[in-house]
Amino acid sequence: MSQTWRPRTRLIHEGTKRSAYGETAEALFLTSGFTYARAEDAALRFAEQQDGYQYTRVANPTIAMFEERLAALEGAEACQATATGMAAVNAALMCQLKAGARVVAARVLFGSCAYILTEILPRFGVEVAFVDGRDLDAWAKALARPTDVVFFETPANPTLELIDIAAVSELAHKAGAVVVIDNVFATPILQRPIELGADVVVYSATKHIDGQGRCMGGAVLSTEAFCKDKLKPFLKNTGPTISPFNAWVLLKGLETLDLRMERHCTNAAQLARFLEALPGVRQVLHPGLESFPQHDLARRQMANGGPLIALRTGGGRERAFEVLNRLELICVSNNLGDAKSLITHPSSTTHSRLDAAVREEIGITEDLLRLSVGLEDVQDLKDDLAQALG
Fold first, then answer.
1. Which of 37, 64, 97, 330 has the least CB density, counted as fewest CB within 10 Å?
2. How does DSSP classify residue 109?
């Protein structure tokens, strides 16, 4: 593919490999295995001395097209797709950690990410330390000791707090750590962590990359060396393989990602300002708002404020549930990144496994709602929120 192509063009053409039939839409290779012309060819492929495919758990032409296109968009050397976003997070960590390793992570994380760090890694003798991701002094103190991996989300789920990617990456590298960032809320359209110093980027492609709530998928992006030497052997032998069909859906989703993100973000910015002026709303959190505590950082490392809003209704869980139950257009769902606007109560769903005191301490209050803004007419969304909030 042409190295001079701009991102919008690459989202449509990068990685395309046409079969002998010359199809315009990328082909779907829905096959588990592949055949060989000679026995010697099979031996050479297993020895990685001949190009070609052997088994979809290892590689597949449709999956490869998705990986190449996403890598080009991210500005990464290589990409490995996975069955889900959590499979991507798990693989990115487990492929490089062993007993005695040390991880430093931000405290505000998606519930399943927190489970890996608090429950799974310690079982295998991995030390995990948590810090307030907003506090560079806390990062510096934690990273004064040798560290193997640094992990965080920015914007974080669900409070949208930000972490200074460049500053934390610099501190992490001095401690000898590999920086792994979950970039799912921003997508590569709004934020490119590798350019800011990160080493590994993970996605739940289930979210905005698909964009229509159809299928599951994930991705890990990094250098050729990381993917070949650490990640690929882990994925090959543990098997969190994405379906070729899902990879094909996600590949087609990339074609419209920047167009959809533009509308998502425009709608979110307008809704955030509308909600901020609405009586009865205790707090509105959106990186694009001047009132957002880390607005300056958002302007430095994100293209705009993003497609999600966090709001506090006041009145605890009872009031939050009352608002959710009164919504007529916006759907109550724990998912996000859909064409449809979706809203959830994190304390009772995505982050319910956390201790109540911990939730409160990190800002996941009982009145907090996370709104994933969709592609609807923004006035209809305003009307629905206005009547629900009463």
1. 37
2. -
